[in-house]
Each structure stands twice: as structure tokens, then as C-alpha cells.
Design brief:
alpha+beta, Nuclear Transport Factor 2, Chain: A, six-stranded mixed sheet, 3 helices, about 25% helix, about 50% strand, globular, Nuclear transport factor 2 family protein
């Protein structure tokens, strides 16, 4: 078995952020992905730019995904910078939400970018800064 590079370890955490969110694995996000406190900026979609807890982030997302049948994030174009125990990642991503009972179109899509900062902790890399910048959204935005 081959050891992963530091860059691969960091990208794996970012990929797990999206996968765990898609599968609504809230405890895994708290235990494996985020630090306890996170600088969290979702102001481009009407949220706040604030320091909050990983639990509060998961509670917010869990509430926001209620009634949605499927969530799918696709991310890439990673630009990773590593400085000792701190790393930054820029990524493009799309998020598609699907609701079978919606009558005005069953999907909505968000296209944007992420600026993420991670810190190396004894248990591995963890996200302590998270910023989402929406480029555009389309589809049935209310999934009504």
C-alpha cells in the first residue's frame, strides 16, 4: 500500500466534505472534516460571514436539505497551497438538488467556488475556514 501525499490527504478531506454532505452524514462532518469552530462564510447566498461551530453548520444544512430527495456535489480544479500545518484549497463546484414531488422542475443547481483553509491536527487535516462564492443558480430554485 502506498502512502498518500499531503496534497492527496487535503483533497480527500475536501472531497469527503462534499460526499458526506450529499449523504447527510452530519456526525462524520463534525468528527472527520471540520474543526470544532469554523470561520464560515455563505454570504453570497444570503447567509452570514461568522465564526460558528461545526454542529451549527450541520444543523443549518440539515434544515436546508429537508424534503430534498437527492443532493449531488461535483468539485474540481483544485488549487492547493501548503504551508507547514496550514493549507488552502480553491475549488470550483456545482451542487444539484433533486425533489421528485416538485411541480415546476425537479432540480435546482448552484454553481460557484470554494475557498477552504485546513489545519493539520493530530487526527489529520481539518477545515477551519470555509467560504462559498455563488456564481449563478438555475432551475426551480424553490423546488416547488
Amino acid at each position: 500500500m502506498t502512502a498518500h501525499s499531503i496534497r492527496e490527504e487535503i483533497i480527500e478531506i475536501v472531497n469527503k466534505l462534499f460526499i458526506y454532505t450529499d449523504y447527510q452524514e452530519w456526525q462524520k462532518l463534525q468528527d472527520e472534516i471540520f474543526t470544532r469552530e469554523v470561520d464560515f462564510d455563505m454570504s453570497s447566498v444570503g447567509g452570514e460571514n461568522k465564526k460558528t461551530t461545526s454542529k451549527a453548520i450541520c444543523d443549518l444544512w440539515q434544515q436546508g436539505f429537508k424534503g430534498i430527495d437527492s443532493i449531488n456535489h461535483l468539485a474540481g480544479n483544485y488549487i492547493v497551497n501548503i504551508h507547514e500545518s496550514i493549507a488552502t484549497v480553491f475549488a470550483y463546484a456545482t451542487a444539484t438538488h433533486y425533489k421528485d414531488t416538485a411541480t415546476n422542475g425537479k432540480t435546482r443547481e448552484f454553481v460557484g467556488s470554494y475557498d477552504i483553509a485546513l489545519v493539520k491536527q493530530p487526527e489529520g487535516w481539518r477545515i477551519f475556514k470555509f467560504k462559498y462564492t455563488l456564481k449563478y443558480a438555475n432551475g426551480n430554485l424553490n423546488l416547488s
